[in-house]
Structures are given as C-alpha cells and as structure tokens.
Amino acid sequence: MKVLKDDFEKPKYSFFARFLHWCFVIIFAYGIYKQVDDINQLDDISFFRTEIIFASVFLLFLIFRFFYMTKTQKTSIPEDTPKSQKFAAKIVHLSMYICLAGIAISGLLIGYFFSLGFRDELLMNIIVGTHEFFVSIIYWLISFHVIAAIYHRLKNDGVWSSMVPIWKERKINREKSQ
Ligand code: HEM
Ligand code: HEM
Questions:
Q1: Is 119 helix (H, G, I), strand (E, B) or coil?
Q2: Which residues, in sequence order, are bridge partners of residue 175?
Q3: What is the pLDDT of residues 3-54, one digit of tens each?
Q4: Alpha-carbon span 32 to 29, nearest angstrom
Q5: Is the dihedral of CA 112, 106, 16, 72 positive or negative?
Q6: CA 100 to ligand 1: nearest atom
Q7: Cα–Cα distance for residue pair 145/139, rounded to 1 Å
Q8: Most exposed: 45, 61, 109, 164, by fewest CB within 10 Å?
C-alpha cells in the first residue's frame, strides 16, 4: 500500500559534499569562460602555463570529489523511485565525471603535443576533435541534469534541497511502499 509521508527532512548530502558540488560548478563555468578560441593562443607561454595548471587542478579536484562522493555519500533519490530512473541518474552522474575527466585529459594531451611542436598534424586534429566532442557531450549532460533536478524540485521529493541552497522544499513528499 502506498502512503504519503510529509516531513521536514534535512538534506542528505554533507555540507562538504554540497560545497564541492558548487565549487566545481564555478570552476567549470570559469573553464568554459576562459576557453581556448584558437590553438595558436598556446604560443603565448604564460597563457599556455595557466591552461596546463588549470586543467591539472581541475582534474585533481574532480578525482578527489569522485572518491569523496562515492565513498562517503549516498544519492538523495528516494528509495522507492523506479529502478529505471535510479539507473538513469547513475549513468548521467558517471557520464559527467567521465566527460569532465575527458575534457581535462585531452586538454593536457593537446598541451603535451603542442610543446613537442605538433601543430596541424592528424594526431593533433584528432585530440582537439576529442576535446571538443567531450565539451559538446557535457553541455547535453548538464542540461539533462539540471532539467532532472527541476523535475525533482517540482515533485518535492527532497532531491533538490539535498544539493541546492535556494528555492528550498519546505515540505518533502516521500511516497513509501509498505
Ligand atoms: C579542464 C580544462 C579545460 C576546459 C574546461 C576546456 C574547455 C574548452 C572549450 C569549452 C573549448 C571550445 C570547444 C568548442 O568550441 O567546441 C575548448 C577548445 C580548445 N581547448 Fe580546451 N579546455 C580545457 C583545457 C585545455 C588545455 C589544457 C588545452 C591545451 C593546453 C586546451 C586547448 C584547447 C584547444 C586547442 C581548443 C580548440 C580551439 C579551436 O577551436 O581552435 N584546453 N576547450
Ligand atoms: C557544472 C555543472 C554541474 C555538474 C558537473 C554537476 C554534477 C553533479 C554530480 C556528479 C552529482 C552527483 C553527486 C556528486 O557526485 O556530486 C550532482 C548532484 C546533484 N546536482 Fe549537480 N551538477 C552541476 C550543476 C547543477 C545545477 C546547476 C543544479 C541545480 C539547478 C544541480 C543540482 C543537483 C542536485 C539536486 C543533485 C542531487 C542529485 C541526487 O542526489 O541524485 N547540479 N551534480
């Protein structure tokens, strides 16, 4: 039998988990803002160095966050959510990690081959193409992720408030199968 439970549950993610999520959103937005528009910009040594440092910090942050989240946190998706939805959320989250790592690693590879003197060779074009491919996929995944977050907000099931500090759900509806 399905019963509706109203309560005022606290977010399930730790403060640090939420802090990491939003710090990363800012770092990512900065990465998109300062993107390389033309490969020849890398001839500027200080620009080149900044790109490499940024991509390395980005990657280390991502790896740290991945292990912190998977080892210490549990999804806030209610237990009685259909398996297909839980699976979709897992796939989208994992794909985001893979794509973000792909962007940073392919960026570092561009830097490595650029420093070896590669410019318009096939190998360089393939790596830049891969870098751009990961960028376009992440835009899709983030859009999907944000739409899903808004969907949960409208469902009032606590998922939104577990991560987002604004437009909080005050009454959380959790349908529980008994
Ligand atoms: C995590 C760090 C990075 C982020 C978030 C990032 C982001 C981006 C974005 C959004 C684009 C535009 C893609 C498009 O228009 O389809 C781009 C292109 C590019 N990025 Fe990165 N990037 C990063 C690291 C790097 C690094 C380390 C290098 C090399 C040192 C690099 C070199 C390039 C190049 C050569 C292009 C193509 C520019 C062109 O259109 O000619 N990126 N990157
Ligand atoms: C760069 C943009 C973003 C990325 C890469 C991202 C990534 C992630 C990832 C990987 C998770 C799973 C938990 C974790 O490992 O941290 C997550 C959870 C979550 N995010 Fe984001 N996020 C982004 C932006 C946003 C935005 C803009 C919103 C809201 C408008 C949002 C709302 C949420 C919510 C509600 C959860 C909890 C979902 C759950 O427990 O299953 N995220 N995010």
A1: coil
A2: 4
A3: 344 444 556 899 999 999 999 999 999 999 999 999 999 999 999 999 999 9
A4: 5
A5: negative
A6: 1
A7: 10
A8: 45
- Alpha-carbon distance of 48 to 46, in angstroms, equals 5
User: Is residue 81 within a helix (H) or strand (E), and if so which, with residue range?
Assistant: none
Is residue 134 lining ligand 1, measured as CB closer than 6 Å?
Answer: no
Task: Find out whether the beta carbon of 111 lies less than 6 Å from any atom of ligand 1.
Answer: yes
Q: Determine how β-strand 2-7 pairs with β-strand 172-177.
A: antiparallel
What are the pLDDT digits (tens) for 152-176? Answer: 999 999 999 999 999 998 777 665 4
Q: Which residue has the tokens 């960028």?
A: 135
Sign of the CA dihedral running 107, 113, 119, 125? negative
Q: What six digits make up the tokens of 158?
A: 């606590």
As a whole number of angstroms, the distance between CA 90 and CA 125 comes to: 32
Residue with token string 């969907």: 151
Spatial distance between the Cα atoms of 23 and 31, rounded to a whole number of angstroms: 12
> Which residue is closest in CA terms to ligand 2's atom 10?
93
Q: Mapped to the 3 state alphabet, what secondary structure does 136-150 carry?
A: HHHHHHHHHHHHHHH
Would the pTM of this model clear 0.90, i.e. be above it? yes
